[in-house]
Amino acid sequence: SLGGLLVQLLTAPVAIAADVVSSLFSALTLSAIRAPEPAPIAREHRASAVRQIGEGLRHVAGHPLLRSITACGAIHNLFSRMIDALFILFVVTVVGLDPITLGLVLAAAGPGSLIGALLSNRLPSRLGLGRTLIVAQMVTGLSRLLIPLAVGPFGSPAIILAASTFLLGVARPIFNVNQLSLRQAITADRLQGRVNATMRFVMWGVTPFGALLGGMAASTFGLQPVLFVAGLGVLAATLALVLSPVASLQRQPDPVDDLGPSAHGP
Length: 266
Prior knowledge:
Blueprint lengths: L2 H8 L1 H20 L17 H14 L1 H32 L3 H9 L1 H11 L3 H5 L1 H17 L11 H29 L6 H14 L1 H15 L1 H14 L2 H4 L24
Helix pairs in contact: 1-2, 1-5, 3-4, 3-10, 4-10, 4-11, 4-12, 5-9, 6-9, 8-9, 8-12, 11-12
């Protein structure tokens, strides 16, 4: 969020150099973390990579909760990358924000993320786990829909865009913390890596196509209409949760072990 200020005051190369230094510092602090890890499985006892990939795909596709979370994530990421590919171009060339104002707009995500982190464990106890995930995804979609409304008779563009990033900052920690905890609870330890790899492949594998689709669509229809349609797409990702067993979850299920199936498994 300081990027806009650094670009304005110290030029873009200095801002990039500062980002590199901060990333190196982060890597050093992460390398200092020590945690006990289970012994790896001996190579001669491991299944082949192809077999492990297939097992992960079958488990995710056959589990109603994992399947719906994956579908929601893939739809969300597809349309979100359309928005991300166009956002800076839109706010600079259409809205006309200067670098400092843009930095302040992006900084609004910071306090939002803090609030979201504080609420991530409290909301499920009040709303239930399923409703918490649904509400968080809905708020994400609504925050995205605010972006194209920054141009028009709706008020200050900077305030509208700051509200968008703030709401996004609130919603994503709530959603991510709870959906990841759910994924881990309903997946046996021996499948954690395979399930995580499968879900990330599907959910993040669509992102290049989203960026490409966003750019192609914007070149034909314009930035604002495409941003609006993409915002609707992010909101529509909520249906993958509403129309699944996720909607009826009241709390995090008890963790499964390597011998017993999940209570919500196939």
